[in-house]
Amino acid sequence: MSIKLLKQGLNGHKPLEPMWRQQPLKDSYDVVIIGGGAHGLACAYYLAKHHKITNVAVLEKAYLGSGGSGRNTAIIRSNYLTPEGILFYDESVKLYEDMAEELDFNVMFSQRGHLTLAHTDASLRTMRWRAEVNQIQGVNSRVIYPDEIKKLAPFMDLSDYPRYPVMGALYHPPGGIIRHDAVVWGYARDADKRGVHLHQKTEVTGIETENNRVVGVKTNRGAIKTGVVLNATAGWASLIANMVGLKLPIETRPLQACVTEPLKPFLDVVVVSGTLHFYLSQSDRGELVMGAEVDPFTSYSMDSTLNFVEGLAGHVLELFPSLAKVRLMRQWAGLCDMTPDYSPIMGFTPVDGFLVDVGWGTYGFKASPVSGKRMAELIATNRTPDLIAPFSYDRFIKGKLVGEKGAASVGH
């Protein structure tokens, strides 16, 4: 138990202070960040901490963390396919490892390991390929087989009975889960302490430009003068970009997930199957958090569907038949901005002063710390950090795609 918690217990209950303040909306900021999720808040935090840029506004049309940051399944990993993606996500995992101490806030990061199952010879070859690329980049990943998988997930059916028997898996020990709302709260609290203004219920209605340069932002609470705008939205990235006449190569699709009633702990690792299109983990409260791939249509709808639950349940029960009588408690959906190569779009755009941190598909939350840190560096120095250079907007023009579909489409 920490000294801080011990003191709180001995001092008795005291009314809790707000984690961040409600500030008046100023008519001018050096930087305006659109999107009050983990990405936008992380960028604001690092701008203030590392670069002493505190005249920053984070604008959120609902409440902080109400978008993708509050609707994801909080899986953290770095076992991607391309060298560019692996290095990028590996830095994010390392930042997550130190986050609780850095923010003085318990984000409940549990590095319990991550299994990506292989059900065919072709899939097993891909896992070996990913493991080798991971190891070359210094990331802990290796291929394991049913005898070792049984020790990590003893309740999984590893016999020949399932329609797609498990032949092996890519095992990634640093992977795990985290409390997503704690990450949002931690960044918001510390950014506020450093002077950043966090504006909830502040919807952006337009972005003003002159001679192809950003000069201001219009909101439902008034106009703001600024020379730098960062689009850090998920689901609405294309709509925000349209405000400056910029077309993004993005399709927005719903992604659904669900959670069961609490059970006694039995699953220590995160389990993913690309063939069966599901992923599964057990929270520290005992619930099973489950999801599948994105819906096969473009939409801004976040309605849940019976079709999703039926399909997911059938696939999960193929490998975990003992869960047949477990009750589903709730389900939800979020929006995913999918790019052609399943990699994000980060950095400068053809509109001077309009920056993007978008296109995160199903894998954005795990990149929150590294994205915030490197986008803050870009804003402060006006130079693109090497780590995010491969994800530039102009890669689609130059034909230099970063193909991550094999590691990102269902792996989460």
Question: What's the number of helices?
Answer: 12
The portion of residues assigned to helices is 25-40%
Number of domains: 2
Major sheet summary line: 8 strands, mixed
Bin the strand percentage.
Answer: 15-25%
Derived from helix and strand composition plus strand pairing, the structural class reads alpha/beta
* CATH class categorisation of the largest domain: Alpha Beta
- Number of E-state strands: 19
CATH-defined fold name of the largest domain? FAD/NAD(P)-binding domain
What is the topology, as strand order, of the major beta sheet? 5-6-4-14-15-16-13-17
Query: CATH architecture of the largest domain, please?
Result: 3-Layer(bba) Sandwich
CATH homologous superfamily designation of the largest domain: FAD/NAD(P)-binding domain
The whole-number mean of residue pLDDT values reads 95
The low-confidence parts are none
Report how far the terminal alpha carbons are from each other.
32 Å
Which geometry do the CA atoms define? globular
Radius of gyration over all CA atoms, rounded:
21 Å
Report what the structure shows.
With 412 residues, this protein is an alpha/beta fold. The chain contains twelve helices and 19 strands. The mean pLDDT is 95.
